[in-house]
Amino acid sequence: MTILDTFTTPRAAAAAVLLAAGLTLTACAGGTGNSTPAGSAQEGGTHQQSQPTSAAHNEADTGFAQAMIVHHQQALDMSESMLGKKDVPQSVTTLAQRIKGAQGPEIASMTAWLKAWNEPVEMSSGHAGHSMEGMLSEEELAKLDAAQGKEAARMFLTQMIAHHEGAVTMAKDQAANGKDHAAVKLANAIVTAQQAEIKEMRELLATLG
Questions:
Q1: Least confident stretch, 17-31, 54-68, 104-118
Q2: What digits encode the pLDDT tens for the residues 74-94?
Q3: In the chain, what are the domains?
Q4: Are 205 and 162 in contact (CB under 8 A)?
């Protein structure tokens, strides 16, 4: 049984998995596989493309993919919440749609990599006790769900800035410690795209007053 099996809601499961991220993300052990399907994807509305690679992966690659899937899933949940609200500024809903469109395919790519590496998609319970950068609590997510209009927009932007900052930290760790070419390439793309989105979101916050 994985740590996720002990929870009954997707958000609670994500919260449990995020506890497992810390140690694995910083691991830099030797390769544990021989080949992987590669892909390049960039957040913020860019495209995704698969190509073969012969690079072996290591524990940092595995931990990055497992943790970033959970991290991305929370961003999708946040974006879906915004897209279901009324009276939210169009600039904010456009951003939410762009995040959703970019991160969904990236989850699919990372899931495929883990399966090709013969690694579990879910993280094990062995590294519990360590939090994942930028993840929101259940209370914070509930407040976002309940908010409407400009209040919801301000909350979403503030929360997503913190969420993106966490993803950038995780991606930089992967770029420094990963071995698989596609996983490192994705990490670098996340850094570039999410730093640009952080700047965009801060500018949007200023317009909301």
A1: 17-31
A2: 999 999 999 999 999 999 999
A3: 60-119+137-209 (1.20.1260.10)
A4: no
